[in-house]
Backbone:
């Protein structure tokens, strides 16, 4: 039965490239191989340098979601740090056990089987199995089953991560982390089609930073690039609850797609951004930089019916702001 599980899952993992599906397959397979009260996969987040509870089965799953452990913290953190699997059948006698998770969730951990996920020398995270069923101890046989399985499961997980990174790189701007203009054109076309089908509004904002060339001229291109990167973060934070469709069009120009908003509602969003940008100080290498920007706004169906009109009219409105006095927001108008 165990060999059948391994063969079946191996075939699936060999062809699966979506991380969420790979994680679900891994944890479901662990549940079939070793009966326990709870199973979890913790993946390394290289940006935060922490292990994140990325998939959980069993009790208290909601409380654990997105919780993190430092490298070396708890048995899972130690297994990741050392790269060596552990069987701990009485956590109360293990100095590495971290009770903070139990205190937070109300779960009672008695025993742990923990195995590192590693592929081609790259440590990806750990699998943690908690409390073997009916109070039985975890055995070397249990460990062997999971270790055999994780050898190819880890390769599948790394392949899925590499694929996701490649997809992400193909649709994002390297400097700002925002979407690139190729992707946002496709998304805008889809959103416009959806708005037409559902008789909804669709707002669009074109942003051009004012006199940005002077920053490059005075402080150099490195500071200029760092500033653009910080502008990208600024936009993502300010628009977090409104839209994630933000793109760097090129140079110091940005696109924002705002679903289900009229031109006036979109103008107000742009005005809030303009005001907050005026008040914000970007500290780049101990240099304080302030910015203003010119905003052009259009919306379907008020000003535009097509993709070209939506972009073109916001672009024209933005250039009218540039021609007048910059640092303002304008809705496109034929008048």
Residues:
């Amino acid at each position: 039965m165990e060999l059948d599980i391994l063969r079946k899952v191996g075939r699936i993992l060999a062809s699966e490239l979506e991380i969420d599906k790979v994680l679900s397959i891994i944890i479901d397979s662990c549940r079939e191989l070793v009966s326990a009260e709870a199973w979890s996969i913790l993946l390394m987040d290289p940006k935060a340098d922490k292990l994140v509870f990325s998939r959980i089965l069993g009790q208290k799953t909601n409380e654990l979601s997105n919780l993190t452990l430092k490298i070396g913290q708890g048995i899972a953190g130690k297994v990741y740090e050392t790269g060596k699997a552990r069987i701990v059948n009485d956590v109360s006698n293990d100095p590495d056990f971290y009770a903070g998770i139990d205190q937070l969730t109300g779960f009672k951990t008695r025993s742990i089987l923990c195995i590192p996920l590693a592929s081609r020398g790259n440590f990806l995270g750990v699998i943690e199995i908690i409390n073997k069923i009916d109070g039985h101890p975890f055995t070397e046989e249990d460990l062997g089953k999971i270790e055999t399985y994780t050898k190819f499961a880890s390769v599948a997980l790394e392949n899925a991560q590499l694929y996701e990174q490649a997809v992400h790189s193909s649709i994002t701007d390297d400097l700002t982390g925002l979407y690139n203009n190729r992707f946002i054109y496709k998304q805008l076309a889809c959103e416009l089609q959806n708005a037409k089908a559902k008789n909804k509004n669709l707002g669009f904002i074109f942003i051009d930073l004012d006199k940005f060339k002077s920053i490059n001229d005075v402080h150099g291109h490195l500071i200029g690039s760092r500033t653009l990167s910080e502008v990208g973060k600024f936009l993502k934070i300010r628009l977090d609850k409104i839209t994630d469709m933000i793109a760097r069009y090129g140079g110091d120009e940005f696109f924002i797609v705002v679903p289900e908003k009229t031109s006036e509602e979109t103008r107000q969003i742009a005005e809030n951004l303009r005001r907050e940008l005026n008040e914000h100080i970007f500290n780049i290498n101990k240099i304080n930089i302030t910015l203003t920007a010119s905003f052009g706004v259009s919306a379907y169906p008020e000003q535009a019916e097509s993709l070209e009109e939506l972009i073109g009219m916001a672009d024209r409105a933005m250039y009218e702001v540039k021609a007048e006095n910059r640092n303002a927001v304008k809705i496109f108008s034929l008048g």
Q: What stands out?
A: The first helix runs from residue 2 to 15. The mean pLDDT is 91.
